[in-house]
Amino acid sequence: MFNLSRASQTLFPGETLLKKARSFSSGFLKTKHENNECFVNWILIKDLTGEVEYNLTFPWYASLHRLEHRTYLDQYELQQDLHKKELEHVIKWNDGCQFKDLDFARQKSVECYFAGAAIMFEPEMVQTRLVWARCCVLTTVLDDYFDVGTSVEELRVFVQAVRTWNPKLINGFVLP
């Protein structure tokens, strides 16, 4: 509702649908604000009440965007700290797997983590982001392994070892 209210403030003259949306959303937010019911349980926002009050007081065209950006940085600081710790965890895991020692493998742990964090940003999605990043890193390493020019026989043995979950099948073959 908050985002609908902000979006409806960009209406052009004669736009009746956005005018109705602005009236409805601002009325809804005013009621919630007056009843002290501005809360969200799935997004980490320190002061949703303050954001709603600001939105009701200052329309989009009258707001100071640079100050808003500073406010958002303050609001989401905890979220940034969480993402930083998770990224450090993914990098440490990548180092522990010794993927950096594989000459053929691209190092994509940072890109893999942020690809997941961009769409799964909620604080309770920690495990999902970490699993996403690990799967993405493993996929990249495997893709690079198959692209490096390994012989067809080595690839067949590797695929068979994965299918049967038997790493002993790879004995005698040296990874590139």
From TrEMBL:
Database matches in InterPro entries: Isoprenoid_synthase_dom_sf (IPR008949), Terpene_synth_N_sf (IPR036965), Terpene_synthase-like (IPR050148), Terpene_synthase_metal-bd (IPR005630), Terpenoid_cyclase/PrenylTrfase (IPR008930)
Superkingdom, natural source: Eukaryota
Signal sequence annotation: none
Any GO BP annotation: terpenoid biosynthetic process
An example molecular function term from Gene Ontology annotations: magnesium ion binding
Domain Terpene synthase metal-binding: from-to ranges: 97-170
PANTHER family, per the entry: ENT-COPALYL DIPHOSPHATE SYNTHASE, CHLOROPLASTIC
Name of the protein in question: Terpene synthase metal-binding domain-containing protein
